[in-house]
């Protein structure tokens, strides 16, 4: 089944569950034929998905491009949030997207560095390979979810550093 590059986990889950249900009904309805054509699985070719742990949510700004982070965000959507750290506090990235506008080359950000883009009302964050991610909503440890604009007003204007760091696996 082809998977679109812009699909989010809940939609993919639904599509795959319907496909699986249809295939199961087809198998039951044609069981004799399926058993005649069955072939044993070669255990040497079997692959196993890794267990999903909280480590999968950690953002590594210097190692992951914006598209890799956006793919992980879509894969975890509705299940877990990507996490980072700011001024020693865990931060969950609740709504994000890859940067769709071309910024001047003077605006290349170091991985984890960011600024608030007033016109777009979002945070622009530097990622690996000089890519950038746009964050629209986030949650700082101990706080309610907030827009990038509220984060700018409440945290950035008082901050000495405008850089996210690798988180310490603290729940928000």
UniProtKB/TrEMBL annotation:
Domain Formyl transferase C-terminal: 51-155
Pfam family membership, one: Formyl_trans_C
Name of the protein in question: Methionyl-tRNA formyltransferase, mitochondrial isoform X2
Organism this protein belongs to: Drosophila arizonae (Fruit fly)
Gene: LOC108608900
């Amino acid at each position: 089944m082809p998977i679109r590059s812009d699909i989010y986990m809940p939609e993919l889950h639904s599509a795959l569950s319907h496909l699986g249900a249809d295939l199961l009904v087809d198998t039951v309805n044609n069981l004799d034929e399926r058993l005649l054509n069955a072939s044993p699985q070669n255990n040497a070719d079997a692959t196993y998905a890794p267990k999903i742990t909280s480590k999968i949510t950690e953002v590594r700004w210097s190692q992951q491009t914006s598209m890799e982070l956006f793919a992980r965000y879509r894969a975890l959507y509705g299940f877990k949030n990507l996490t980072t750290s700011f001024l020693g506090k865990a931060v969950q990235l609740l709504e994000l997207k890859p940067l769709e506008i071309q910024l001047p080359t003077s605006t290349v950000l170091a991985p984890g560095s960011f600024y608030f883009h007033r016109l777009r009302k979002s945070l622009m964050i530097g990622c690996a390979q000089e890519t950038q991610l746009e964050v629209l909503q986030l949650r700082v440890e101990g706080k309610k979810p907030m827009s990038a604009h509220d984060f700018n007003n409440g945290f950035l204007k008082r901050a000495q550093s405008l850089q996210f760091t690798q988180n310490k696996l603290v729940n928000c």
